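From the shared-data thread, chain only:
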Amino acid sequence: TMSSMNDKKVFFTVNPFNDQKLQSYNYLEETQVNEVATRAHQAFQIWSQMSIGERKNALGRLKLELAARKT
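Structure, as tokens:
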């Protein structure tokens, strides 16, 4: 769902069960999109050079971090 708040375009995540708006997000400007795409590409280049063991360790650390944030 899209709307306009303070002349900025925003979109919402919506619970499909009850149509409740959960969160709003601002659309990014083109320069911001380009920056995010560049960083994602750089991260992929690093990730693709990692061994399976290094990837497993990185995902294990991510799992622990996400679990810690949940509490």
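The chain has a mean pLDDT of 91.
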